[in-house]
Structure prediction request, 43 residues.
Amino acid sequence: MKKYDEGEAKEGVGAGAALAYANTNSLTNKDILEAVELIIYSM
Prediction:
C-alpha cells in the first residue's frame, strides 16, 4: 500500500490489498459495503 499511496503502483494493487485486508480480518461483503457507503455519504 505504501507504493500505491506514493503513486508508484497500479490501480489493482490497492484493490488487491483491500481484499487481502478484508480476508485477513474476516470482514464480510456487508461489512465492506457499509464502510464504503459511510465514506461516500459523509463526503
User: Anything to note?
Assistant: The radius of gyration is 12 Å.
